[in-house]
Amino acid sequence: MVGIKDVARQAGVSVGTVSNVINRPEMVAEETRTRVQAVIAQLGYVRSESARHLRAGRSRIIALLVLDMANPFFADVASGAERAAREEGLGVMLCNSAQSPAEEADYLSLFAEQRVRGVLVTPADTSGRNLADFRRHDIPYVVVDRVLASADEGCSVSVDDITGGSLAARHLLAQGHRELVYVSGPMHLSQCRDRHTGALAALREAGLPQDALRRIEGERLDVAAGRDAGARLLGMAPRPTAVFCANDLLALGVLQALFAAGVSVPGDIALVGYDDIEFAAAAAVPLTSVRQPAFRMGRTAADLLIEETGEAAAEHRHQRIVLQPELVVRDSSISAPRH
């Protein structure tokens, strides 16, 4: 591998001059600068970012650690974060915890070793231990898609999932349904709990008992888990007329299971998802969904992290930003139940 000493030897200058050409070109005479740059191009020299980070104490890489890289919602979050990062000359490293606190902890060690600039994280660990380790390793972070209990813990950017759950349930109740099923991922995830809480609040507002909302809990938040939930729905007695899913991937899996069984959506069962990913509108029956501003969440979170780790870090104050969801009504939920 070509090193900086090779460039200096070939160009007939000192290592310090090569370093200045790379990092402070305005300090080097034009003739010398041109000669060194030509040698760099000829030899194919690429500076060692990791070594530079060790000297400077600051990386140009932001890590984004998400629950499920396959979920288009997190792809939109990543797009927003990348947009903000690129405007500041930074890059984003995307990592997947697969909803595993253990994998999240492993990535923490990697981030510490690589001395990343900071981390945008959707926590898989609900105990707070991993976030405490981030603080102990002095790694700046912003929590995405979850609100922190206190701004003293750090910055967070989230959506009001209680309101989102309420929007979904109110919509189904307005269509005439009086018993709902909530298809959820792991209930230890705050997003799943909050959406359930919002749905229960809508039932209370309508004067309905809490047991009017039955729940199916899956181990994951993906299409396969949705298909499994759909099979369980078909075995329920009485069969529900309305289903609210904790995300769109679950809803798409439920839709597949219902179609395979010859159940009409929305004629027999109305269906609402959450996130409003691109696939929701393109489903066989366009899916009603609670939209989260995912791109804005990612961009806002990255902006906060860049501010916290930038030149004005001393003036930074932690913020808890909570964005509002929006119900997008499509064909999957708009007919009244059959009696």
Detailed description of the structure:
With 339 residues, the chain is α/β, with parallel strands linked by helices. It has three domains: 4-47, Orthogonal Bundle (434 Repressor (Amino-terminal Domain)); 58-158 and 294-324, Rossmann fold (3-Layer(aba) Sandwich), CATH 3.40.50; 161-292 and 327-333, Rossmann fold (3-Layer(aba) Sandwich), CATH 3.40.50. Helices cover 45% and strands 17% of the residues. It is built from 13 helices and twelve strands. The chain has helices spanning 4-11, 15-23, 30-43, 49-56, 72-87, 101-114, 129-136, 161-174, 190-205, 223-234, 248-260, 278-281, 294-309; strands spanning 61-66, 91-96, 118-121, 141-144, 155-159, 180-184, 213-217, 242-245, 270-275, 288-291, 320-323, 326-328. The chain has a six-stranded parallel beta sheet, sandwiched between helices. A six-stranded mixed beta sheet has the order 7-6-8-9-10-12, with helices on both faces. Helix 11 (248-260) links the parallel strand 8 (242-245) and strand 9. The chain starts with a helix and ends in an 11-residue tail after the last strand.
User: Could you say what the CATH architecture of the largest domain is?
Assistant: 3-Layer(aba) Sandwich
Helix/strand order, N-terminal first: HHHHEHEHEHEEHEHEHEHEHEHEE
Helix percentage: 40-55%
Overall, the morphology is elongated
Overall pLDDT confidence: 90
Major sheet: size, sense and barrel closure? 6 strands, parallel
Instruction: Tell me the number of structural domains.
Output: 3
Question: Low-confidence stretches at least 5 residues in length (pLDDT < 50)?
Answer: none
- Kindly identify the CATH topology of the largest domain: Rossmann fold
How many helices? Answer: 13
CATH class of the largest domain: Alpha Beta
What is the rounded Rg?
25 Å
The percent range for strand residues is: 15-25%
| N-to-C span | 74 Å
User: CATH H level of the largest domain: which superfamily?
Assistant: Response regulator
**SSE-based structural type:** alpha/beta
Task: Say how many strands there are.
Answer: 12
Strand order of the largest sheet: 2-1-3-4-5-11
